[in-house]
Amino acid sequence: MMDKMLGSWSGQEEMFDSPWSQAGTAFGRFIVTAGPPGVLLRDYRQHRADGSEFLAHEVYQQQADGEIWLFTFDSFGFPPLEPARGNLQESRLSLIKTTPRGQARHRWLLSETLDYQVEIAVGNTAEFLPFLRASYQAEPTS
């Protein structure tokens, strides 16, 4: 099912205030390729309305028990101490990551479009707040 992520995708993004960015809009583009068995690689570039960029390289790995792990290397510069962990239920991929800075929930809806949400809880706060919402369309292949 995660194979639905393969290919080139782009779309508009809505960002919310956080310790790492201000609220605003952005345009995201990424390519997902197959790695070794059970691994997908995602290279992502976000162009923000203020002219800045955010870059990320992600490794999605499906474990033998079906759990999905996500390792992210990005331009914020925080090393991935532990992977985000989650599962794929039908067409929904849900992952949660815990770091010393707080928690992040990543949610993908895999269909004709790829709908994506990230919510964060900063520090010891139990409340999750929106961080990013986006809907990506497949780019035509050449």
Brief synopsis:
The protein has no helices and ten strands.
Low-confidence stretches: none
Radius of gyration (CA) equals 15 Å
Instruction: Compute the number of structural domains.
Output: 1
Q: From N to C, what is the helix and strand string?
A: EEEEEEEEEE
CATH topology: Lipocalin
Share of residues in helices: under 10%
For CATH, the homologous superfamily is named as Calycin beta-barrel core domain
Question: Which CATH architecture is right?
Answer: Beta Barrel
- Indicate the proportion of strand residues: over 45%
Label the overall shape. Answer: globular
Backbone structural class: mainly beta
Note the main sheet: 10 strands, antiparallel, barrel
Number of contiguous helices: 0
Strand order of the largest sheet: 1-2-3-4-5-6-7-8-9-10
Text of the CATH class: Mainly Beta
How many distinct beta strands? 10
Describe this protein's structure.
The protein has 142 residues and is mostly beta strands. The chain has one domain: Beta Barrel (Lipocalin), CATH 2.40.128. The chain is 0% helix and 63% strand. A ten-stranded antiparallel β-barrel has the order 1-2-3-4-5-6-7-8-9-10. A hairpin with an 8-residue loop joins strand 1 and strand 2. The protein is globular, with a radius of gyration of 15 Å. The mean pLDDT is 92.
